[in-house]
Specification:
The protein is mostly helical and 638 residues long. It is built from 25 helices and 10 strands.
């Protein structure tokens, strides 16, 4: 626990202090990176010394020795299954090595990636990382949209940008960040929810993976377009880099709050384990670390911050006066830094709200609506059952059984007296609220993105499924339940890890390096007119373009269609091309293979009327405003 807290404190303090110093110094440089790293090291030392490392109970001689005096039900109940624990650690290690050592790699003349889910996502993150490392003023302009500041919680990319500024190779930096995050995530899941939670993360799945019994093929059965509940490790941890930090931080804070705010009214009348809170005498984290991790979380992953805030609200609502005072103090002190970060990542609050009442999650959205692909559903009720049962399988009845059991235990003996909910019930209630929010309120242009909230409802409920329900059942029955819950996800995980041979090309190395040398001589703040695609060499070098990949623009809430048409007229060489270039604040125009292909009928007047500043086999770059200052007109808003 001490090492986990210290590592997260180091990443947090280094990144946040570098952001503040970069804003003052108008960009990152090696001096800022080194000084900020020293701040991170100091924070890590204090975090290590002040974190209370709650002991793990020793292995009991018999399973029945688990009692109110024996400590955590998670560690005690699984002590007999050390083999299970190390097997899960081995599988987690296999996933981490396969996914992050081949996250981005060199293969002859190409840069390739292992995961087909990561082609567009990693390209965008490479853009952000290299943009941060190119010494642009912070908070930077949006490299994929001309009329905006960066609208993304890019804290993890800022951290990798610092590694690049320090001289660490980008590919190695990506790999080490992923591997260390996996180690922290695995340990954090174990402390939050034991082996059951680690398995729940690795093997989440519904029913589709059981197709293996018919096909006998190891495939990513959840990775197909018509299945919504996808493998969390393969489609979220690998692709959404903010989770590399947010997952261990979120789990650590949940663990801390479960200890800190444990209710003391649990009876010991029956022979059940005590509450799901680990046995400890004081909260694991010092208050300053709890505050800093929570308050700066929007910089790394806004959805995790929202989920944890809802958990705090539920804890406040069902807490006593002391707990409410403590939570109110945390929220009050976190408000200013969290609001400041929200101001940064929303383009100074210019990003419009996309909240919309949309019941059913993606139950009626495109291919997701029919998880069986060739659906036989003829009415809404059958369609409802098809979507939820195929996607979530046996998780639905097991979670409903847990909720029913907790409700019966809380209210089954009558409500004549004021009932104080158990800590298990309070956390489960928070999970239910997160589930309802993700199912009924669309929080992004793409409805599937609600999974960023939905997974936290899933993570929160995992430990209580074990401690309040499954531990009571006979071992043979539990084994059957584990197969039903984890079998589909197990097949999907290993099937997904076998994908990617020989990989998926993302860039031609010679082209990328040559363009990198060319643009290195040009101002990092300059913006380029170029064809909008996810892996354009300019973007992979961290340079700003007028418009980036339409899919990325859409998910960030931009109405880009009129500008895309206007960019096309510019690249086609219309009579007003110069005025259009000034409208877009485009100092340079890039003309390469993608532009030649997609604007084949262009008149290319810049070849006669603009200054050629770089050329090669890859194409050419033209200066559209020679002699003019690099800063463009005031940014327009749309």
């Amino acid at each position: 626990m001490k090492w986990l807290a210290a590592g997260l404190a180091f990443v947090n303090a280094w990144t946040v202090s570098a952001l503040l110093a970069g804003m003052i110094g108008h960009g990152l440089n090696k001096s800022i990176a080194v000084c900020s790293m020293v701040v991170g090291l100091v924070a890590a030392i204090f975090a290590y010394r002040q974190t209370y490392d709650s002991p793990i109970p020793e292995e009991p001689r018999e399973a029945t020795s688990v009692s109110a005096a024996s400590g955590s039900p998670f560690t005690a109940a699984f002590a007999r299954y050390r083999v299970c624990l190390w097997l899960l650690v081995a599988i987690f290690t296999m996933f981490a090595v396969r996914s992050f050592c081949w996250l981005l790699y060199v293969d002859g003349a190409e840069l390739r990636i292992q995961s087909p889910n990561n082609l567009g996502d990693l390209s965008l993150h490479l853009t952000y990382i290299n943009n941060f490392a190119s010494h642009v003023p912070l908070w930077p302009d949006n490299p994929i949209y001309v009329f905006s500041k960066l609208r993304y919680p890019a804290g993890t990319d800022l951290f990798n940008g610092l590694l690049s500024v320090m001289g660490l190779d980008l590919i190695r930096g990506l790999a080490w960040a992923g591997l260390l995050s996996c180690a922290a995530t695995c340990f954090a899941f174990y402390r939050w929810s034991g082996c059951f939670g680690v398995a729940g993360f690795l093997f989440n799945g519904g029913l589709v993976g059981f197709q293996f019994l018919r096909t006998h093929q190891w495939l990513d059965y959840q990775g197909v377009p018509n299945v919504a509940w996808k493998s969390i490790p393969l489609t979220m941890l690998v692709t959404q880099r903010g989770l590399l930090y947010a997952l261990p931080v979120g789990l650590l804070l949940l663990y801390h709050w479960r200890v800190k705010y444990s209710l003391q009214n649990q009876g010991a009348a029956d022979s059940k384990p005590p509450s799901s809170s680990p046995s400890t005498t004081k909260p694991p984290l010092p208050f300053w670390l709890e505050l800093s991790l929570y308050a700066t979380l929007p910089l790394f992953h806004a959805h995790t911050f929202l989920a944890l805030s809802i958990v705090l609200a539920v804890l406040f609502l069902f807490g006593d006066g002391r707990r409410r005072l403590d939570i109110a103090r945390l929220l009050a002190l976190a408000f200013v830094p969290a609001a400041f970060i929200a101001w940064l990542i929303t383009d100074h609050f210019h990003a419009g709200s996309v909240l919309e009442f949309h019941p059913g999650w993606v139950q009626t959205d495109g291919e997701f609506a029919h998880p069986l692909a060739h659906s036989l559903a003829n009415n809404s009720f059958v369609h409802f059952l098809e979507f939820w049962i195929v996607n979530f399988g046996f998780w639905i009845p097991i979670v409903l059984a847990l909720i029913g059991w907790l409700l019966w235990r809380a209210f089954g003996k009558g409500v004549q007296q004021r009932i104080k909910l158990s800590d298990s019930m309070v956390f489960v209630l928070a999970a239910v609220l997160l589930f309802l929010l993700s199912v009924f309120v669309k929080m992004a242009p793409w409805g599937w993105d609600n999974i960023k909230i939905l997974v936290w409802a899933y993570f929160i409920i995992l430990p209580f499924l074990w401690s309040e329900l499954l531990w009571r059942w006979p071992l043979a029955l539990r084994a059957v339940i584990y197969v039903l819950l984890f079998g589909s996800g197990f097949v999907t995980l290993f099937g997904g890890l076998t994908v990617g041979r020989p990989g998926f090309g993302i860039a031609d190395r010679a082209e990328l390096d040559a363009i990198g040398m060319a643009v290195k001589k040009l101002p990092a703040e300059a913006r380029y007119a170029a064809y909008p695609t996810y892996n354009h060499p300019l973007l992979l070098q961290g340079r700003k373009v007028v418009l980036g990949y339409p899919g990325h623009l859409w998910t960030q809430g931009f109405d880009f269609s009129p500008y895309n048409d206007k960019l096309t007229t510019l690249m086609q060489g219309a009579a007003s091309w110069k005025e259009t270039a000034r409208f877009f604040q485009a100092r340079y125009l890039f003309w390469g293979s993608r532009e030649k292909t997609n604007y084949a009928t262009s008149k290319r007047p810049w070849e006669r009327e603009a200054k050629l500043v770089a050329t090669g086999e890859w194409g050419a770059i033209y200066d559209l405003e020679p002699g003019q200052p690099q800063s463009g007109p005031a940014s327009q808003r749309h």
